[in-house]
Design a protein that fits this description.
The protein has 245 residues and is an alpha+beta fold. It contains two helices and twelve strands. The strands form three sheets. A five-stranded mixed β-sheet has the order 1-12-11-6-7. β6 (151-156) and β7 form a beta hairpin.
Length: 245
């Protein structure tokens, strides 16, 4: 009887070993297949991301060319030198709420406010927090004054077509509204930390649009040296960088 039990034990053991080997052979191709499928999904996502980046770059190029052929839109995070000044954007936001630090708000019929001067109709503030530093360019014959209202806002749709534009309406300069309000006497080596504000109709302030500021301090656009373009971290650019409002 002992030899019968031994034979049965060996048979059971052999059955378990064979079953384990078969399971491993079946499981390995399944894992390999899953890994291959995962790799294919990752590669597809990377290709789609590259395609989207190329499309966005094409739109930015088209936007820049509407100002002048050969122009480029500088990154929002960059420090950009234009004539005697260095500009750097820190943040931008779209809001209905007035910042108490703004020196005033414009009293036009199309803008409706509550008692705190928050906008309550179909318009919103577009506020840009930036630093401007004076650094004289020795190559220039004359030192030019700084006028903040030389900064304009352009808004473009997903095809790079302009849908809206805005002039500066107020800022943080620590002075009352007056005829030459946007003039600021910035001396060599000094810097101005401020927030400049535009007011735009809500229908143009979508997440699918592209936002850019056009700085043309010191004259009209006759050449690429006369102006700079900077992206704002709003809309498509905000979605891309994950910037906060």
């Amino acid at each position: 009887m002992k030899w019968v039990k031994r034979i049965l034990g060996i048979g059971i053991l052999a059955f378990c070993v064979i079953g384990t080997i078969r399971f491993i052979k079946i499981e390995s191709p399944m894992k390999s297949g899953k890994q291959s499928e995962s790799a294919m999904v990752t590669t597809q996502e990377q290709e789609e991301s590259k395609t989207q980046d190329l499309e966005k770059n094409d739109v930015w190029s088209k936007i820049a060319s509407t100002y002048m052929e050969g122009a480029v839109c500088e990154e929002a995070s960059a420090k950009v030198k234009h004539r005697n000044w260095i500009y750097q954007i820190h943040s931008a936001k779209i809001t209905k709420k007035r910042n108490p630090k703004w020196d005033f708000v414009p009293k036009f019929e199309m803008y409706q406010y509550d008692k705190y001067e928050n906008l309550i109709n179909d318009y919103s503030y577009v506020a840009v927090d930036l630093t401007i530093q004076c650094e004289k360019d020795k190559a220039l014959e004359h030192y030019q004054d700084l006028y903040l209202n030389s900064i304009g806002l352009g808004i473009f749709d997903e095809n790079g077509m302009q849908v809206s534009a805005g002039e500066m309406r107020t800022a943080i300069l620590g002075k009352k509204e007056q005829k030459n309000y946007f003039f600021y006497n910035l001396k060599d080596g000094e810097q101005l930390n401020t927030e400049v504000v535009f007011i735009i109709e809500d229908k143009f302030l979508t997440e699918n649009n592209y936002y850019v500021i056009d700085i043309t301090n010191g004259g009209i656009k006759q050449s690429l040296e006369d102006f700079v373009l900077m992206k704002l971290p709003l809309g498509v650019e905000k979605n891309e960088t994950g910037s906060k409002k």
